[in-house]
């Protein structure tokens, strides 16, 4: 799977990451998030909502953890204060009381058994009468816990004793609370879930291995929270549009009945049902925070002055790899974990967690070809500006989940464990040992290189191509010999800047001395070279001051020069490139557009149309992205997208399949969209014929 050339709108990703970090209170910054112009109004409003529901999301996590710890009383107390409507639902209240009964018996003391009996009389039995039809039978069944030991795995109530019940109830409560409080995760978090889910499904169905499986398996877990079920009064809801049902079922891998139940619970709102189902997917927030932090440091979003010297080896007192550190940093690059206390055990292999990192100082991170004197000059020249720029960066504070709750809410038996789970240590709270001064010196070296890379990225994003080329030649005279494409882009940018100011003679000089020879050596550059020269004839029509184009070039430059200086690009970049590539491929197979991509800003992440002139030569895969506009848009009754001008799904036999026929075959035969289309093609697009042939 070659996804390295998949274009990504990094400006949009920066905005999504910043919005996520602010929404989850991971950074100390109160300024508003500036959404890119390509974001839709609906997705912008979604971002503001996710930010304003931080306290609700935090409350849900608290209640989840209390239930997982078996402290049902504390969870009920929190619900009574913050979400009393949950306790009005006797279905949920019955489950809580039943689990409370089990937890009291689990403690085993005489007092607790007496409390369990009181729970039966005052709480569990009354709820069992009207919770749901099977509740009374479940009530009688759970009474067997009085006579069967909790360690008896063969008892009729072994399932009731299982601690897995805690996780199931905690997940169900989270699903209901999230939907009722509209406390959905930030857009970025949901987009990551969705893209990875599609990526996993695509790789499985196509029988190919994922190049990012080491990350995706840790990030998106297989299990999901239980689905929130609609109350019986909602079972008579009007029938839903089958387009909605099929879109939801295939987007989040539900059965048709599961999709119908989800829509019932959301009262027919496809967007809400989609978000409910998406947030059921369990994401390891520790891993996600780590990836986001790594990306923010790389992009210069957060201050990194104290982050580089920290690695799992140093924190754990191991110098297995640290002893090899020299002036050329290899192992300290991005050796940053979201929670140092959680990763310190030496049973964790650093290479397993960071498969892309080098194991020797003389591999990919080598900077032997760079001019150390030139690097020093560049650093000295820009020292004042760099300090001013750093002072404007945000400060990473990490995930703090110790929100204020009254002390009496937490019962004494679980208070210590609860505080441990609720307030994980900050990623960088541990003090570095003084004897590791060599590592700090190396980290300082790495930090200097970061500042150089970020400075070059900043110059490129401002269109200062001549200055970029000059500084890179000072640092590494051989860089552009190995990166001729970047040199072409930068000189192309300089050419356009001169044309825009009316200095045509200087522009032609650049074209003849640099662009022309580069085009002669690489035929793929001839087309963009011709288009560049055409701007001499129509300077007023050319791309002028295009920030997106500059951003794309600046990012490409950052990755290339960073690697040359021993700085690998963050893993989040690799995840986005790969998952966006499989998202494209998956919906090509489905022969339709993704009706949810606008909601999650996936369309904005793919939107590179504004960089057509400057970035055409940056990636040979750009033309492939146009194919995503060639298929028909599935129109939902709840989410409407404009249809493209291209024809609908067309087979090799030029058979046009109507959307109603596709949906009918998908519904009756429970088939994926692509399989339904292939069957329709064989029978001239007639759904009735397909169904008759299958059942005959």
TrEMBL record:
Stored InterPro entries: CTLH/CRA, CTLH_C, Ubq-SigPath_Reg
Bilayer-spanning residue ranges: none
Region Disordered: start-end pairs: 28-48, 357-397
Residue span(s) of domain CTLH: 56-112, 449-506
Domain of life: Eukaryota
Pfam families xref list: CTLH
Lineage of origin: Eukaryota, Viridiplantae, Streptophyta, Embryophyta, Tracheophyta
Full protein name: CTLH domain-containing protein
Organism: Daucus carota subsp. sativus (Carrot)
Bias-annotated ranges (Polar residues): 366-375
């Amino acid at each position: 799977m070659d996804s390295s050339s998949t274009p990504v709108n990094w400006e949009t990703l920066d905005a999504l990451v910043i919005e996520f970090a602010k929404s989850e209170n991971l950074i100390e910054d109160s300024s508003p998030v500036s959404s890119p112009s390509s974001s839709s109004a609906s997705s912008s409003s979604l971002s503001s909502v996710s930010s304003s529901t931080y306290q609700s999301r935090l409350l849900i996590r608290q209640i989840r953890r209390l239930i997982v710890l078996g402290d049902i009383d504390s969870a009920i107390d929190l619900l009574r204060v913050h979400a009393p409507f949950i306790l009005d639902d006797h279905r949920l209240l019955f489950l809580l009381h039943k689990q409370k009964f089990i937890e009291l018996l689990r403690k085993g003391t005489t007092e607790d058994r007496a409390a369990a009996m009181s729970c039966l009389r005052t709480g569990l039995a009354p709820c069992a009468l009207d919770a749901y039809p099977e509740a009374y039978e479940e009530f009688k069944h759970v009474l067997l816990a009085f006579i069967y030991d909790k360690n008896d795995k063969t008892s009729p109530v072994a399932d009731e004793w299982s601690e897995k019940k805690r996780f199931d109830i905690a997940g169900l409560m989270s699903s209901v609370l999230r939907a009722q409080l509209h406390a959905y995760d930030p857009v970025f978090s949901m987009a990551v879930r969705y893209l990875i889910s599609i990526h996993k499904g695509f790789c499985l169905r196509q029988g190919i291995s994922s190049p990012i499986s080491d990350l995706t398996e840790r990030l998106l877990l297989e299990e999901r929270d239980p689905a929130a079920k609609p109350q019986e009064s909602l079972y008579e809801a009007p029938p839903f549009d089958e387009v909605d049902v099929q879109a939801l079922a295939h987007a989040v891998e539900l059965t048709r009945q599961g999709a119908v139940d989800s829509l019932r619970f959301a009262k027919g709102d496809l967007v809400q049902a989609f978000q409910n189902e998406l947030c059921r997917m369990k994401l390891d927030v520790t891993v996600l925070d780590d990836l986001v932090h790594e990306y923010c440091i790389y992009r210069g979003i957060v201050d990194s002055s104290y982050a580089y010297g920290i690695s799992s080896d140093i924190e754990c007192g191991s110098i297995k790899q640290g002893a090899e550190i020299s002036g050329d940093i290899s192992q300290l690059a991005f050796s940053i974990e979201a929670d140092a206390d959680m990763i310190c055990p030496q049973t964790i292999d650093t290479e397993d967690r960071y498969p892309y990192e080098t194991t020797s100082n003389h591999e990919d991170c080598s900077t032997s070809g760079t001019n150390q004197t030139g690097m020093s000059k560049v650093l000295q020249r820009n020292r004042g500006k760099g300090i001013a720029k750093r002072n404007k960066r945000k400060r990473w504070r990490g995930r703090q989940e110790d929100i204020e709750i009254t002390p009496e809410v937490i019962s004494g038996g679980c208070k210590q464990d609860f505080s441990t789970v609720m307030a994980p240590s900050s990623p960088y709270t541990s003090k570095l040992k003084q004897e590791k001064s060599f590592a700090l010196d190396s980290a300082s070296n790495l930090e200097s290189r970061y500042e150089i890379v970020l400075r070059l990225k900043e110059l490129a994003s401002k269109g200062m191509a001549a200055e970029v080329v000059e500084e890179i030649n000072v640092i590494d005279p051989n860089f552009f010999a190995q990166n001729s494409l970047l040199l072409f882009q930068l000189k192309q940018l300089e050419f356009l800047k001169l044309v825009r100011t009316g200095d045509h003679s200087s522009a032609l000089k650049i074209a003849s001395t640099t662009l022309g020879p580069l085009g002669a050596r690489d035929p793929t550059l001839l087309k963009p070279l011709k288009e560049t020269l055409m701007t001499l004839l129509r300077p007023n029509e050319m791309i002028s001051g295009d920030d997106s184009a500059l951003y794309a070039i600046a990012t490409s430059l950052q990755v290339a020069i960073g690697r040359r200086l021993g700085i690998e690009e963050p893993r989040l970049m690799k995840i986005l490139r790969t998952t966006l590539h499989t998202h494209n491929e998956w919906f090509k197979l489905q022969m339709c557009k993704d009706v949810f991509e606008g909601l999650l800003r996936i369309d904005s992440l793919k939107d590179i149309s504004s960089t057509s002139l400057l970035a055409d030569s940056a990636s040979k895969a750009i033309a492939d992205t146009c194919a995503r506009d060639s298929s028909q848009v599935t129109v939902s009754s709840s989410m409407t997208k404009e249809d493209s001008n291209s024809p609908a799904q067309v087979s090799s036999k030029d058979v046009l399949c109507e959307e109603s026929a596709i949906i009918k075959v998908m519904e009756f035969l429970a088939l994926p969209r692509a399989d339904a289309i292939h069957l329709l093609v064989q029978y001239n697009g007639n759904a009735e014929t397909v169904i008759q042939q299958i059942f005959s």
